Amino acid sequence: MPTFTAPDGTRLAYRTHGEGEPLLCLPGGPADSRYLGELGGLSARRLLILPDLRGTGRSAVPDDTSSYRCDRLVDDVEALRDHLGLRRTDLLGHSAGANLAVQYAVRYPTGVGRLALITPGTRAVDIPVTGEMRRELARRRTNEPWFPAAFAALEAITRGADGDWEAVAPFFHGRWDAEAREHHEAARPGNAEAVAGFGADGAFTPKETREALAGCAIPTLVLAGEYDLNSPPAAMAAFAALFPDVELVEQPGAGHYPWIDDPDRFAATVSKFLG
Question: Which of 50, 70, 130, 175 could, after both became Cys, cross-link 33 (CB 3.0–4.6 A)?
Answer without folding.
Answer: 50
